[in-house]
Amino acid sequence: MSRAFVKESDSVDELPDRLISEHGNLVTPEGLAQIEAAVQRFDDAHAAAQVAGDLALVAATARELRYWSARLGSAELVPAPLDVDRVQFGSTVTIARDDGRRQTYRIVGEDEADPANGSISYVSPLARQLVGKRVGDGVRMGASETEIVAITR
Question: Is 96 a domain residue?
């Protein structure tokens, strides 16, 4: 249909795409499942928004669907590490800080990272320092030193 016959209120400009990281899209099996679930969730939400005629929601869900579909298409599944000799993608690492606190982080893909819940992106500064290290190795965090005290899968 020609744009001349469409009311201005019947269209909503497409939202700009979400930025996609320049880094490889490495994912754990759990991360891949999260991305697949996001694609399904936003596909369903997009269809519902279209049925409801909610043009703003159509644009918002289309944007999310484009993002998550692109992330699914570029996902590189990395199986769980086979050994725990060195920190690697998918490892769970426990560090001891100078003040006696212990913190545990799992190194995961960017979309599944949630530092407040113990998972950090493999491209984060901390993860970059940890990868390749062994139990007993020190890692600098800000002005303090930490020591790797455990590595698990």
Answer: yes
